[in-house]
Write a structure and sequence with these properties.
The chain is built from ten helices and six strands. It has about 250 residues and is mainly α. It folds into two domains: about 190 residues, no CATH class; about 55 residues, no CATH class. A two-stranded antiparallel ribbon has the order 1-2. It has a two-stranded antiparallel ribbon with strand order 3-4. A two-stranded parallel sheet has the order 5-6. A hairpin with a 5-residue loop joins strand 3 and strand 4. The two termini are about 20 Å apart. About 20% of the residues are buried.
Length: about 250
């Protein structure tokens, strides 16, 4: 699904969310299972989501006693949506219920790192680094995963053959930092360029500065990763589609 219009408020949220796409030199055995899209998309929502409200364990006899007046029920006003007989969903998540029943969504409940101190920032670093304690900010678990994958298809034609992922945002989140080379992309805050700007610059740089010409071409190819077809608009549409999808399945 594509969301054609993105308001400034949503754009701000996207920029702050630490959202990233990472699709690597995916191993060829992944495709042996069928013609599925081999891209692995990770979205980090910086903030908070109460798992006991989003996916309440209404079948747990202690749930109502502990949550008291904020406990959710499957009857009455604004009932929770049945999920599997034990868990339910917040009533604002009917699309997630539909995806779950279709086998296209899953919940990993009651999962956490071993970090138990009260620093949100240290806790976030532990989550993204994949290490058991704070202070490891050089590499993230996703980048280390990309390093260990066997070679397969390249991220994008024309990009460096060593590039293994694409980070979306002004800064690469810790989860994807590391030795595995990445491309970076962020939504532009500038006025959209005329359609002939890129070929004019490519012609200029091609005649005067081979290094800039190469960098420009890599930037164009990065846009192609997100767009598939339309360099100018496709990347933004990919972000819009991902954000719209998350709006469907997360409670408001």
């Amino acid at each position: 699904m594509l969301c054609e219009h993105l308001s400034p408020t949503r754009r701000t949220v996207l920029g702050a969310s630490g959202m990233l796409f990472a699709w690597a030199f995916m191993p060829r055995f992944v495709r042996a299972a069928g013609n599925r899209d081999p891209r692995f998309v990770t979205i980090i929502l910086r903030g908070a989501l109460d798992g006991l409200t989003a996916v309440p364990p209404i079948g747990d006899p202690d749930y109502k006693r502990l949550r008291q007046e904020i406990a959710m029920r499957t009857d009455g006003d604004h009932p929770a949506l049945p999920l599997d007989g034990f868990f339910a969903l917040h009533p604002s998540m009917p699309n997630f219920q539909r995806l779950y029943r279709a086998g296209q969504a899953a919940v990993v409940h009651a999962s956490a790192t071993a970090y138990r101190d009260r620093s949100h920032f240290d806790g976030q670093d532990v989550l993204e680094s994949g290490f058991p304690t704070p202070g490891h900010v050089e590499t993230g678990w996703l980048n280390r995963l990309l390093e260990g994958l066997p070679a397969g298809d390249t991220v994008a034609p024309g990009a460096s053959k060593r590039v293994r992922g694409l980070s979306v945002g002004a800064n690469a989140p810790l989860v994807i930092r590391g030795k595995a080379p990445l491309l970076g992309w962020a939504p532009s805050v500038l006025k959209p360029a005329d359609g002939d700007l890129a070929p004019r610059l490519a012609d200029l740089y091609g005649q005067t500065d081979p290094m800039l010409a190469g960098l420009l071409q890599e930037g164009i190819e990065t846009g192609k990763i997100a767009s598939g077809v339309d360099i100018k608009r496709g990347a933004v549409r990919a972000i819009q589609a991902a954000w719209s999808r998350w709006q469907e399945v997360l409670p408001g």
